[in-house]
Specification:
Layout: E1 10-15, H1 34-50, E2 56-60, E3 75-78, E4 81-84, H2 94-106, E5 130-133, E6 136-141, H3 147-157, E7 168-173, H4 181-184, E8 185-188, E9 192-196, H5 199-214, E10 222-226, E11 232-233, E12 243-247, H6 251-259, E13 263-267, H7 270-274, E14 284-287
Parallel strand pairs: 1-2, 6-7, 9-10, 12-13
Antiparallel strand pairs: 1-14, 3-4, 5-6, 8-9, 11-12
């Protein structure tokens, strides 16, 4: 992965929790500390701002619905393409998604998302099941995303026959109880896969390696295994970054990430976990790739402010 010269190329959008609508208990009946959740969100927001994962963080206004914290549900970003997700099962969130689009437009992004996945009434797709890698895209095939979505994405992005421009789209089968693929399988650094060391993560890695080998690719990606349930935030963007935001309390996961040469940044996420909200779901990361007269605008974000894991408490 090569560094690019971009000015505020990666934008992240997050939504602040609405205090009064935070439920008193989570999905499994565990008590949720509202004040602590607000503190955790603020710390997460500040940490994200100082990380090298993104160039600009936008905080969106509160909405009286806990689902609205899953801001990434609205779309998935593949390179410069913003894929709008089908609204099946999320019709009640239409106004929320329109509000998110307004924030994206205000930040200099497009006025709308691509509707390829929405135009087919048989398509079922979840943004969390799409994971971008340097050499292609992995799409989870399971309880949220079907074969129709995989075929549409394959037709849109797959490039075969050119060894210099090959771009693969792999379908990774998921168990019925698996969370979205991006919650337990992701990308970091230059060529590192992050995966939970459980049945879901191991299955995803095994399938990816087999399908990658079938393409004749010789380069193998490194793998950092994390503890099952450990939430993290990292993605394949437009610029090289070693930062990985990791849920505090998972020391073995942080050691695994550090051992492979990455920079784990611990953040509190326990109260969000009680509500079933992953770190990935809480951030909508988008690539704003806009050419200038010189091809790409110069990036001016200094990397001197990077936070090392030992500097964050």
């Amino acid at each position: 992965m090569k560094s690019t010269s971009c000015y505020r190329a990666v934008h992240a959008f997050v939504r602040a929790p609405h205090y009064r609508t935070i439920p008193a208990t989570g999905n499994n009946g565990v008590v949720v500390n509202r004040d602590m959740l607000i503190r955790h969100f603020r710390d997460f927001y500040r940490t994200l701002q100082h990380s090298n994962l993104v160039d600009k963080v936008h905080i969106m206004s509160e909405r009286p619905n806990i689902e609205s914290l899953r801001v990434s549900d609205v779309m998935s970003c593949v390179g410069p393409t913003f894929l709008g997700m089908p609204l099946y099962g999320m019709e009640h969130r239409a106004t929320e998604f329109m509000d998110t689009i307004r924030y994206i437009r205000g930040a200099g992004g497009p006025t709308s998302a691509s509707t390829y996945l929405q135009d087919n009434e048989n398509c079922r797709c979840h943004s969390g099941d799409i994971v971008c890698l340097p050499t292609g895209i992995t799409v989870g095939h399971g309880p949220r995303t079907n074969a129709v979505a995989h075929q549409i994405i394959k037709d849109l992005f797959e490039v075969k026959g050119d060894p210099h421009m090959q771009f693969d789209v792999f379908a990774l089968e998921q168990e019925g109880d698996a969370p979205p693929l991006g919650d337990y399988f992701g990308f970091a650094g230059n060529n590192v896969l992050l995966a939970w060391k459980d049945e879901h993560g191991l299955l995803a890695v095994d399938q990816y390696q087999q399908q990658r080998a079938n393409t004749g690719a010789s380069e193998q990606m490194q793998i950092a295994y994390l503890e099952s349930g450990c939430h993290f935030f990292s993605f394949y963007g437009v610029d090289y970054s070693t930062d990985v935001m990791v849920q505090k309390g998972y020391e073995r996961s942080m050691e695994s990430i550090a051992a492979i040469g990455l920079n784990p940044i611990p953040v509190q996420w326990s109260e969000m976990t009680k509500l079933g909200i992953s770190m990935r779901a809480a951030v909508l990361s988008l690539n704003f790739l806009q050419p200038s007269s010189h091809g790409m605008m110069n990036r001016n974000k200094t990397h001197g402010t990077r936070w090392q894991s030992y500097q964050i408490t």
